[in-house]
Sequence to fold (232 residues):
Amino acid sequence: MAIATGKTAQRRHRTRFDLTAAARRMTAEHGLSGFTLEELCASVGISRRTFFNHFASKEDVVVGVALDDDDEALDAYASSRRDPRLPALATVFDDLGALVVERVENVGLTRGQAADFKAALDREPRLFGAMMRQGDEQRRRVVAAVASHEELDEGDPRIDVAVTLLTGLVQRAFERFFSADGRADERFDAVLDAQLAIARELFAVSTAAAPSALPTPPAAPTPSADHDRKAL
Fold:
């Protein structure tokens, strides 16, 4: 049963990879209105009905937002619990970084796909709206998952800061990954790992340099008895 499930997941990921790759290429060449779903499906050998088992719209397939996107990985993370021997949020960057890398691999954002994806976004700027909407919803889900995993309240400001920092690092990793100066054999996980390593180094230096406690202000002088008598 485990083998069958693995093969099913592989086929699902392969179909989605092929669909997003073809959709991005066709969008870059013709725009969203320049091809039909039937033409897209025919190019990867699936039916229109099968398409809607994976994606809700043409915009979603270009962006790479599947119907059950990230459900399994994020839900598994949310239902797991951090090692109680570690302080809260000690592994949050590593945990969320792994989820980001898995998502990137699932939606086909390899170096080979980067140029087509960027060209599709340049051709159809409205796709950024779909990405932003998905980003807001995804952030809400990630915050909830972190809170569940860490057994913290969703309103804990540390979660917001952690997700904000990681979002910035992921954005920077994407910029480097999409850069024309990037190596053809470069992997996104390696680029993100480099950003995370720099962040850890900075935090380590900041923590080591920070004073263990704020200096105690000098106590106010106690008025003398003579001063009290003069004040009377």
About this structure: Residues 226 and 232 are 10 Å apart (CA to CA).
